[in-house]
Every structure is written in C-alpha cells, then in structure tokens.
Amino acid sequence: MPGKVILVTGGTGLVGKAIEQVSKTESLPDEKWVFVSSADADLTSEESTMALFEKHHPTHVIHLAAMVGGLFRNLKYNLDFFRNNMKINDNVLYCCYKTGVEKCVSCLSTCIFPDKTTYPIDETMIHNGPPHDSNFGYSYAKRMIDVLNKGYNTQHGCKFTSVIPTNVFGPHDNFNLQDGHVIPGLINKVYCSKKENTPFVIWGTGSPRRQFIYSLDLARLFLWVLREYDESSPIILSVGEDDEVSIKDAAEMVVEAFEFKGEVVYDTSKSDGQFKKTANNGKLRERLPDFEFTSIKQAIKETVQWFIDNYETARK
Ligand code: NAP
Ligand code: GDP
After folding, report:
1. Where is the NAD-dependent epimerase/dehydratase domain positioned along the sequence (predicted)?
2. 138 an active-site residue?
C-alpha cells in the first residue's frame, strides 16, 4: 500500500519524462508516482488544478509544469510567459497548501539570475537585480515561486522548496527550431542539414557560455531533493563551473555525434542572449560530493541517437 503519492506536474515534458524513467528503477515500495500533463488539467485554472489535487490526493508534488522555451520563444512572448507561469505557480502552490501536501519541489532556472552580477552566481543572489531583458517575463514569474515558498513556509509551516537547474537537454526535449532550447535546436538542424545536404546554421556568434545538464542526471537529483533536501531556500542543480562550454563547443559535439561533414556557418544577425550565467554548485557538492554527472559528450550522443530513433514522434 503506497504511503506516498507523488504528483508530477509537467510529467510529459523533457524533465518529467526523465523523472518517469528514473522512478521506474529508483522508486521505493511505499511510493506511487502520478505523471500529469495539460490534458489532465489546465493549471492556469484554479478550479481545474483543485480538481486534479482532489482526484489524486498527492502527499508530495514535483512541480515542473510551465510555459517553457528557448531564447527565441522568450523574446517573442515575454508577457505570456509571465502571465501563464504566474497563474500556474500560484494555483499549484495554493492547492498544495489547501490539500495538505507534505512537500512540494518546484523548478526555477539559472536563466532567471540577475543580468548585471558578479560570477559565479549562487542561491542567495537570485533577487539581486533585474534579469536579462530577453526573458524577463519567464524570469520574474519563476522568481515569484521563491517568494511563494517563503510565504507558505513562514506563514503556514509548509515544506515547499525549489531547485535551480541550468540549461537542460535530453530525450523527449522540444526540438522545434523556433521554440526550443539550443541543444535540441542544433540537433534538429544537423539532422536536416545531413539529410538535405545543406549548411548547418548556428544562430549568434557561438561565443556565449552555458552549463548544460542531462535530463536523466537532473531526474536523479530531483529524487534526492524530494527525499533528502529539507530547506525552503533553493538549491542549484548544475555541473561545475569548469564544465561550462561555449555554444560553439556544444555545436561541435552535435556535429561529431552525427558525423556531419558539411559546411558550418554562424548567423550573427541572430541574438546571442545573455553571455553567461555561470552558477556555483557548491551547495549541492557539500551535500552530494560523490554525485557523478554524465559527460556532456556522452549525453549529446545519447540524445542524438534518441532523436534519430524517434524522429517521427519527437516534438519538432
Ligand atoms: P517542457 O518539455 O516544455 O514540458 C512542459 C510541461 O508542462 C509539459 O508536460 C506540459 O504539458 C506542461 N504544461 C505546460 N503548460 C501547462 C498548463 N497550462 N497546464 C498543465 N500543464 C502544463 O518543459 P521542461 O523543459 O521539461 O521543463 C520542466 C521545468 O523545468 C519547467 O518548470 C522549466 O521552467 C524548468 N527548467 C527547464 C529548463 C530547460 O532547459 N528545459 C531549464 C531550467 C528549468 P503538455 O505536454 O500537455 O503541454
Ligand atoms: P538560454 O540558455 O536561456 O539563453 O536559451 P537557449 O537554450 O535558447 O540558448 C540560447 C543561446 O544559444 C544563444 O546564445 C543563441 O544565440 C544560441 N543558439 C545557437 N543556435 C541556436 C538554436 O538553433 N536555437 C536556440 N534556441 N539557440 C541557439
């Protein structure tokens, strides 16, 4: 008889699918996992959100559902990112409180850090100044999760916390060129360039730097946070500062994984976005010194293989 019912909002997305895969082997006997999508409930509606909670009676929630996108989707829809995510987060956390959920782990992002800052950035700095203008809507809405967590914690004693992952990629990502993040975008582009014998076009200068995390590594860390991390303040889930790579480095790894031999060009008329958001993973390392991240090369290889194997059904 499961003692814990763990509801995962956004359970059909990149991170949700990775948690589903990891939970299949690492689930404990007293845990029942429920993965839901927008087809189960539109979380921008308080009524639908409450109906979902009343249906499943979760004791624990991993809250992933959000309007998500790469730089170019954010540039176009800042207002929608703000409004949709504010509604979703307010509804989910309110329903967690009203229905007595024991613990809720929500998801922030290193994209929401201040633009003008010293590096590396740590968990204490997320509210220290305006975010990069390219994704201000997403960023301010995500920052409010931390405000809500603090409010529910201080006013009602709720165990609500959040994690701050860097740029995530892996199987089940959104490979759409306009909407998705950089690695799935590069993978889709090289796939097409190889098939059609056309140049592979990387947007921007290729010099911005990012710490990438493989979705399956992030999923294993989520399970640890759910079970072991008991602070209400957020924790950065990231590879180390030395593992930060340029967009050019990442593009070269995609080229290598496909064994692509064609022409590679940079379209510098496209935005570079924020130059870097280097995050310090010291808080994580203090608690989990032995956690092993998959190398970015290996993770890109596996994701490329997944995309080739699932081309017909992949989001693109
Ligand atoms: P994703 O692949 O785009 O998945 C988004 C999920 O949210 C889907 O399951 C989607 O359901 C659900 N959703 C969206 N709008 C909804 C609504 N109104 N009601 C109910 N469900 C809704 O996103 P992801 O990359 O897995 O991101 C998961 C979390 O990680 C998000 O909170 C995101 O901000 C955070 N994060 C992502 C990255 C990254 O690089 N991807 C980096 C840092 C943090 P449908 O499938 O039905 O649409
Ligand atoms: P960010 O990490 O939040 O800025 O978002 P992205 O994952 O979208 O990464 C954006 C960075 O990758 C910028 O420097 C873009 O110029 C660069 N980039 C290069 N090619 C692409 C592409 O095909 N898609 C996306 N989304 N970004 C690209």
Report:
1. 6-240
2. yes
167 lines ligand 1 (CB under 6 A): yes
Give the whole-angstrom CA distance, residue 116 versus residue 207.
18
CATH top class, domain 170-210+242-277+295-309 = alpha beta
Among the options 77, 138, 152, 229, which is catalytic? Answer: 138
Instruction: DSSP letter for 278, please.
Output: -
CATH 3.40.50.2300 describes domain 4-168+211-240: no
Domain boundaries, given as residue ranges, for the chain? 4-168+211-240, 170-210+242-277+295-309
With a 6 Å cutoff on the Cβ, whether 66 touches ligand 1 is yes
d(CA 162, CA 20): 19
Q: What is the pLDDT along the chain (316 residues), one digit of tens a residue?
A: 568 999 999 999 999 999 999 999 988 889 999 999 999 999 999 999 999 999 999 999 999 999 998 888 999 999 999 999 999 999 999 999 999 999 999 999 998 999 999 999 999 999 999 999 999 999 999 999 999 999 999 999 999 999 999 999 999 999 999 889 999 999 999 999 999 999 999 999 999 999 999 999 999 999 999 999 999 999 999 999 999 999 999 999 999 999 999 999 999 999 998 899 999 999 999 999 999 999 999 999 999 999 999 999 999 9
Check pocket membership of 165 for ligand 2, CB cut-off 6 A: no
Q: CB–CB of 123/68 below 8 Å?
A: no
Strands 159-165 and 167-169: unpaired
